[in-house]
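Meet today's protein:

…
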Amino acid sequence: MARNILRKLVSNSQASIDDGTYDVDADLKRSSMDLVQTINLNTHPTLLTEIKFASPSMGKIRTISDPASIARQMISGGSKALSVLTQPHLFNGSPEYFIKVRKAVNVPLLMKDIMIDKIQIDAAEKIGADYILLIQSLFDNAFLDEIDEFIDYGHKKGLGVLLEVHTREEFRNASETGADLIGINNRDLDTLEIDLGTTQRVLENFDGSRPILSESGIETPEDICYLRRCGAKAFLIGSSIMKSGNIEEQVRRLVKAY
């Protein structure tokens, strides 16, 4: 089933490429801030909060509204970086939303998409992204070849790479790459269910050699404290914040977890 979900995600990205979604006309500067340095020096939780209006597991999360306004609310609450969905299929994302956010804020931005082609990495550079997301399982399951080639290409474009994993095997493989950050997705693509214990299992005996993000299912300050004890140093949080009636206050509540 996971392969079916992965295949659908890859097909959606290919459809977006074919539709010209990533043929953007922009030349925006990225942030002047260093996300890895922020993660390493921050005494509070480093939140990478996510602007997304829908997802495969939840459907519609929030009525589409001004992404720049949402971004400002998140930063006012204490977010140190933002993830912005650019995938139109299933996520209701858009490079145009990303551009609006980039023009409005200076914090590091992650272009969140299912990256399958260098055309998307070229778009990330144009719209002022600081980081791109790559998914380890797409390479481990042979949907894509040569993960090092994708990472190197991103680096040549001046982009950092967040490499996402779900299992210990994927984590081991990711650790052998030149990715700048590794993210552990607590969501199981087989079932779409979330288990925060995924982060604990994946990081068992980890030596802490590079910053680790925990992703998906994070809703409370207690969740953040638990994941910190597991070894995560930063936290990618989307749905629980986007569903909130007060985005700024919800972010502030999570930032005060420790």
About this structure: Residues 55 and 91 are 5 Å apart (CA to CA). The chain has one domain: 2-255.
